[in-house]
Specification:
This protein has 294 residues and is mainly alpha-helical. The protein folds into two domains: 136 residues, no CATH class; 126 residues, no CATH class. 65% of the residues lie in helices and 0% in strands. The protein contains 13 helices and no strands. The longest helix is centred in the middle third of the chain and has 42 residues.
Amino acid sequence: MNGLLGSTILEMAVGLALVYLLLAIFCTAANEWIAAVLKARAGSLETGLRRLLEGQNGPPQPGTGAVVKLVDTFYAHPLIQSLMHGGNHPAYVTARSFASVIMDLATSDHPGSISFADLESGIKNLPDGNVKKTLLALIQNVNGDLGRAQAAIEGWFNDSMDRVSAAYKRRTQVWTLVVASLLTILTNADTIQLARKLWTEPALRGAAETLVQSRVTQQGTAAKVSDAELAQLGELIGWQGENRWSALAWTERVLGWILTICAVSLGAPFWFDTLNRFVNIRAAGRKPGEATAT
């Protein structure tokens, strides 16, 4: 039986994508909560900054001549301190702020405006270390342009943070798989069983279709979803009425869970975009003057 979209297979795909989207949204929310509790972003940034500035002492302290590690003077700088609300490490530091602090520390004996010569001299006067060598290499080809020197330092920071971000994303992916696994098992979101139900029950396909068009649409012109339709969607997942307990059924169920976990781990944006491709989510069509996607 063909439905509104004219294809049972397409309608089944829409239903599956809708379930994956809802689970992925819960998964994303759980990941954000975990990251907030563990202060994961701030911890990753601190680790990255300390690795970036390690092996380098800062300029001698005025008056005492004491030598302090550059990373400690970096965190003591007022610009960085202003980002530490309540003493907590910031989750984000812009490349411009980083470069400004590094340049200010290198030219601490030149308060106010500085020239490229001041910056170069200040870097050369730093104690020998990894950061000094890096900064001298960065300003070699800027032709005495202070703005280009700052841009080079910002690029150094951005390149280092790209590696930090990649490591953070890998950890997040692990959390995503764990949370997706728990959600999938708790809700018994078995892809194989979902596909079977959607294929054999037109009412469930219709409920999923209506929900997509009325809730995902930006125009909000589609019909509202009735309580009966929501109840029908609730029949797609869950343990209610489950009576398959044989070894073969468990094997199929576990395979279905694995498929769901892999799908949910792709993320909510992926499934939202997929639904947009499956269904014209604007009941009124394209906006006037909207460019056609190529």
